[in-house]
Design brief:
The complex is a heterodimer of chains A (87) and B (348). Chain A is mainly α and 87 residues long. Chain A has helices at residues 3-42, 53-56, 60-73. Chain A has one domain. Chain A is 67% helix and 0% strand. The chains are: A mainly alpha (87), B alpha/beta (348).
């Protein structure tokens, strides 16, 4: 490994060292934001009244893939819905 | 047939003539006051004047077909030259919407989940609010089409409570969707910060399936979600703008000269004021004509006279039109035509 490559590697590691914790915070904030959005879209299914349920239906297909991870993260091991089994 | 003269000579031409120049007219009032007949007669009058007019019933108990004395369904039906009728079937509209969502879901899930998708969405079809939302969707679409495919769209609305709710929905929905769009904005800001920092699955301290997806796929999906919400938002906003636009839209309140009708109309005017929907005119329908014989009718007319004075006083700021009670039912195109001409005649 040349000196130049080594220096580059050190610089990368240093950047990672400083950036990683910050990135973790942002990544979690981003996920929390999206989880909250999931809650809005699927709220009626969880018994929370939502004035716009009908209009949320069309968003549900696009969020279906994330549904399983989401309900697990929300502390529900199995899908909260009888009619919406994904696991 | 010359219509009998009502008790109060009405300022009718001044009040109703400009209505037919609008793009959207809502005809509302308590159940049974004659909304459908007035809406249909206005529509015939507009078509007679060369305007392409669609008259739409939003009342789940449709009677538009009965007034025209022919079948009108959930598709635009030609009733006369330049005149179409439509009875919105919100259940059918909700069914179509849900079928479309189902099809889209099935493209995205494993075939073994198809039965679950069907079951879940069948429940959504029966959920409270579904029919209302489907109705609003249809009404909003037709409002936007007024001035395009049709010069004038006249809505024969359901009894007052439903209609007030319908008219307040665009604002409620717009506010709700706006909130969701703000969440989408925050999410996409965070995503772009993450992208600059170089996202790693390990950042969340867990390995979840979505982390395996390439980030561009997530981005495309996020953009599609936001666009869907934004499209909804535009539709609700446009409907709301049209509702409040005095030049484009008029609300006509129909009442009868009786106590209950007067009281309800007063409440309706207050509620419409609260949602800022302007009322263009009042139609006082079924006024006993002068000269209708018999002691019984004479007594009735005296009582009505008191109510007509009350109407004068209570609704002074609004243009009013009086229509007499006719000896026969107003039914069929030619009777509606006569009533329409009476409503819009140039000389009062």
């Amino acid at each position: 490994m040349s000196l130049r490559e080594r220096l580059r590697r050190v610089s990368e590691l240093a950047t990672e060292f400083y950036v990683a914790p910050y990135r973790g915070v942002i990544a979690r904030a981003h996920r929390d934001q999206d989880d909250l959005f999931m809650l809005f879209v699927f709220s009626e299914l969880m018994g929370v009244p939502n004035p716009a349920t009908y209009y949320m239906l069309e968003l549900q297909p696009m969020l279906l893939e994330r549904f399983h991870e989401w309900h697990v993260r929300m502390g529900m091991e199995h899908s909260p819905l009888d009619g919406f089994r994904c696991c | 047939m010359r219509p009998p003269t009502p008790v109060t000579p009405p300022p009718r031409a001044a009040a109703l003539e400009p209505l037919l120049e609008r793009r959207i007219v809502f005809v509302g009032g308590k159940g049974g006051v004659g909304k459908t007949t007035i809406a249909a007669a206005l529509a015939v009058a507009a078509a007679d004047r060369g305007r392409r007019c669609l008259v739409v019933s939003t009342d789940p108990a449709h009677s538009l077909g009965d007034v025209f004395d022919r079948a009108v369904g959930d598709t635009e039906t030609l009733l006369a030259d330049r005149l179409w009728g439509l009875e919105i079937d919100p259940d059918a509209a909700a069914g179509r919407h849900i079928t479309a969502v189902k099809a889209q879901m099935k493209r995205l899930v494993h075939p073994r989940m198809y039965a679950e998708v069907d079951r879940q969405l069948e429940l959504a079809r029966l959920a409270p609010g579904t029919v209302e939302a489907a109705l609003l969707e249809r009404v909003a679409e037709l409002m936007v089409q007024a001035g395009g495919r049709f010069d004038l769209v006249i809505f024969d609305t359901a009894p007052t409570g439903h209609t007030l709710r319908l008219l307040s929905l665009p604002e409620i929905m717009a506010t709700w969707v706006e909130g969701l769009l703000r969440h989408r904005e925050r999410s996409s800001r965070l995503a772009s910060v993450l992208a600059r920092l170089g996202r790693r699955p390990a950042d969340l301290g867990e390995q979840s399936p979505s982390d395996d997806r390439p980030p561009h796929e997530d981005e495309a999906r996020a953009a599609a979600l936001t666009e869907m919400l934004a499209a909804r938002q535009r539709k609700f906003r446009r409907a709301r703008e049209l509702l409040l636009d005095r030049e484009a839209t008029a609300f006509v309140l129909v009442l009868n000269p009786d106590k209950l009708s007067i009281l309800e109309s007063q409440k309706t005017l207050q509620s419409l004021g609260r949602v800022h929907v302007p009322v263009a005119a009042l139609v006082v329908n079924r006024v006993l004509p002068e000269g209708a014989g018999g002691a019984f009718l004479e007594a009735r007319r005296r009582q009505e006279g008191a109510y007509l004075i009350e109407i004068e006083e209570a609704f002074a700021p609004f243009p009013r039109v009086s229509l007499p009670l006719w000896p026969e039912d107003v039914r069929g195109l030619s009777a509606l035509g006569r009533l329409g001409r009476y409503l819009s005649e140039a000389t009062g």
